[in-house]
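Chapter summary example: a protein plus zinc ion.
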Amino acid sequence: MLQRMTKSGTSRYSFHYCGRAVDINQALGGGNGQRYFIVKEASGQQMYWRIYCKTANSSGAHIKALTKGQVKYYSFFNGKDIDIPAGNYVDLTTLIESSGKFERIKAQSGWEKDYNKTEWWHFQYIVAKQATFLDEMELIGYSEQQLRIAGWSNDAMLDHPPG
Ligand SMILES: [Zn+2]
């Protein structure tokens, strides 16, 4: 049964409902075995993220050597920018977006105080994106009535842009 998610950081119009969103493994973003080094990339008032994935291989397509501190990554645990360790990395964000089929999303406001709102792990499929949340949900088989029952209860919600 279709249900609205209430977890902090989950957009009411998330592309997860539409089956278009992918969340990569957050466990690789810190702690032992950290692979993802997540870099702040502000655009106007919005915050986006760029993910550098540390690789075991030193050469290969998309692999680039970085010196210590060549890039500052953001530590969600410490709340500050830190020198990236020297090593070999793939710019995962560029790689994912280079297909032209997936995009990253901006952090939700208040991300500094709520990790769930950072959304650094979230990518979504953008081919033939629909104009409204209702159009998106109809594409995967939900009816307007089902949406209304599940809590998208008025026209403004149904006509809201997805995402
Ligand atoms: Zn997501």
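Key point: The helical segments are 92-97, 133-139, 144-150, 155-158.
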